[in-house]
Write a structure and sequence with these properties.
This protein is of the alpha/beta class and about 210 residues long. About 50% of the residues lie in helices and about 15% in strands.
Amino acid sequence: MKNKYVDFISDEHLLNCIANLHKAYLKAKNNITKKNFYSNKVDTIKLTFDAQFNDINQESLIQAEILRQIDKSINNSIGTFHEQILGGIRGFQVGNLSGFDIKSNDGTLFAILNFESLSQNIEEGIFEKLCNDAQFKKKASYYYVDFSSKNDYLEKWVIGNEESSESHKRVFKTSGNKFYQLLTGNEAALSSLQSKLPIVIGDYLKFPV
């Protein structure tokens, strides 16, 4: 039977991923209420200045800050959502404490996903980890997937400069879009998922998993 939503994961798996993310949203909203908002070391003096000098109702500022804190806590859950989606593609799975977020069932692909800007030192640490692992698994390719990048690319990962650079023939850096394409064989996989999300979410809310 043909899938209703996207062709690279089952409808059931996609709905389960939506359900897990919805639970994360509800948990975040329940954890950050107006009552515990003030217990999170909020600078109430600054809040007063912001309200008075910017001519904004203090209640509106509080609600905006609560939403910001909820959004901050949800970012990790969005990353988990992508892991679960990619782990549902045939031939791949979630890393499950392996040190990688996504890996192939046959052990020929390993990936670390990133969803925020990282310092150069942290990126270099990830690079060294991938290169070191590649030394032991001679048939595996390794990917650092940067979902925070606005560019669309898949390339051999090179660090350093023209005078001194370092790379490995099986260690790559890629955008989220290209990684979806790599795992699915469909260059429009991520955009297809994005376009279908309103329909999937609507169906889920009608009949929660």
